[in-house]
What does this fold into?
Amino acid sequence: MKPVPPSRRGFLAGAASAVLLPSIARTQPTAPDVVVIGAGAAGIAAARRVIAGGKTVVVIEASDRIGGRAYTESETFGLPFDQGCSWLQGPRSGVPHVDLAEELGFGLVNHNSANDAFYVGDRPATRSEQAAYDRAFEEINSRVYRPGDVAAASRLPADLKYSAVAQSWIGPMDFGVDFANLSTGDMNSYGSYAYNYLVREGLGTLVAAHGQGLPIRTGVAATAIDWSGDGVRVETTDGTITAQACIVTVSTGVLGAGAIKFTPDMPVAKQDAIADVPMGLLAKIALQFDGERFGLRDNDFLTYAVPNQVPAEACYFLTWPTGFDIAVGYVGGQFGWDLSNGSEADAVDFALGKFANMMGSNSRNHFVKGMMTDWATNPLTLGAYSAAEPGRFEARKTLAEPLGDRVFFAGEAVAGRYKALMSGAHLSGHAIGGEVVDVLGGPGVCSSCEARAEQRQRILEAVEDD
It folds into this structure.
């Protein structure tokens, strides 16, 4: 999900991982205590917590796979490629995926040591150009990482060389939006990372392994939630599920599009909060080569100078992640949306052209194939991850509020200091799963409404474990 420049910020079958869950999880209850909508990291964590609390659960997933925006795909290139989030980052405790990866023998690559190769035209930057590039980051970061919730663009210095380069990394390629739409409240609320890994087998593969053995019904979409009674009735494309409570983990893009009808309607404040925390976009354009590395190192970033105009038409790269022969290009913000509205072939040609401008026209002779991710147009996401509008960061708290102690909301959009990250989605799902167990009278969690609200607030306000 979020490429962070270092100076700034084999699918396993069920038998291998099903043992991680109690036997109750392998059944499909016909009248569950809880229905979870979405089998991404948040939905998986929520389901696990509900089961641990002694309640029954069914997870419905509109896609034909589990993992959500954590999606490793191997058919295009014949190797695991994370079409969605690919960095395993998060706090020291509360996120089991590092231990799970080690238990399953996955290859974890520490990405804290990555370098950033900067090109000006067809050559590496000179020492003075590199210094100016570094100054642009330092100056912009010193201005935007200050208290307050305004548009990041309002804090930019004038006439700063390579400003557009730095803005492209910090804004669209990190937060999914351009500086004009980037909330400094969002920027300043992130927690520190205790780890920063790439996963050779794919982060999506790891998330999917974490969901093995759960009662998940794939290919089943929620179309309506009736929360007018004591419990909930969830209308799906495969019938109606009646439960005591529902946990919704779909993106704010899906909620904002009205793909799920609520009866009664959600309160106006909740609807406004959804609109105030829309989806940003980070899309990937992956280029496969024949083994030629062009002098570029594994797991490094590749950046080039662009005109000092924003939004910039920039596509910056991660080269040979975990040793595979792929250069992963990133486009985000408005330019990412624009490029996504065109053809995949045009997008691949654009990225290859930018790569060849740096590495030389002969690099095209080593090109094998390319592809672009579809998060912009995918009806199950309608974007990559959430990005609060400037001045509306506090809307995330309203977004997290349950409806009548029957409909609860989890996911990266309400994950506090780890929003927009897979680890944040997991933390949110785990916390909300515990809150639902408490509401339903389960053991092991606080019992009062005030205590539950405080628990939720801890997630929102970033209690991190350093």
Q: What stands out?
A: Residues 1-26, 462-466 have pLDDT under 50 and may be disordered. The longest helix spans residues 127-144. DSSP finds 14 helices and 23 strands in the chain. The longest strand covers residues 282-289.
